[in-house]
Amino acid sequence: MVSLAFDGVGARYAKRAVLDDIHTPTFFGGQIVALLGPNAAGKSTLFRRVLGLVNGEGEVRLEGATAERPIAYMPQETRVDAVLTVYESVLLARMQGRRLKVSAADLEAVDRAIDELGIQALTARDIGDLSGGQRQLVSAAQALVQSPDVLLLDEPTSALDLHRQIALLSVLRRLATERGMLIVVALHDLGHALRFTDQAMVLADGTLKACGPTQAVVTPELLRDIYRVEGRIERCSRGQPLLVVDGAL
What we know:
- This protein has helices spanning 43-50, 86-95, 104-116, 132-144, 162-179, 190-196, 214-217, 220-225; strands spanning 3-7, 9-13, 16-22, 27-28, 32-36, 59-63, 71-74, 150-154, 182-186, 199-204, 207-213, 229-235, 241-248.
- Helices cover 32% and strands 29% of the residues.
- It has 2 domains: 1-70 and 148-213, 3-Layer(aba) Sandwich (Rossmann fold); 79-147, no CATH class.
- The strands form 4 sheets. Strands 7-8-9-5-10-11 form a 6-stranded mixed β-sheet, with helices on both faces. A 3-stranded antiparallel β-sheet has the order 4-1-6, with no helix packed on it.
């Protein structure tokens, strides 16, 4: 089983420290980990640190990976300049770093990723002609088609309507369980985090403010101290946690 942990991890751009001394317990395959925090907290930088795109102190410990490319990443920015159809762009993501010959298994993986995200109707369209939300779903398919052990998603629901947000997060929940994939997803919607994720990391000002089971991390104190709102956690009729925000401080 794949696992990921952070041991004193920092990150720097030139001489400027962006992350400092991030320590976490070990996260395991089958879990979805919410990466929470206000804007400019360091969430995107943490993803870049995992990918080795920025330098810094400490160690990112990835163990038990079995995939050819163990980590796939969906960035927050989904704008593209290439003139490709949706199908071609997902296939290109599948083949990146692989042999040039496309196999039947590669085509099956592309079809499966497209089907899982419900974007079959977009396959023949040029990716540059899509809306922001449609491009976001295609970007998610480009990450999923790589069949990684660890999937990093940077605000994958920011351009989606509510129906598509829930659909995407439901797919991620199922894939984590079925494939034993470890998924780390940056979210601003704490209600979605409570509903769909197992663990949560909270960043603010480049430091880790809280880490643990999501329902233990998202508390009225967190809302007040990190997000500067008054709120509470209630239970809906089916027992699921429900975030209620009363007002800004």
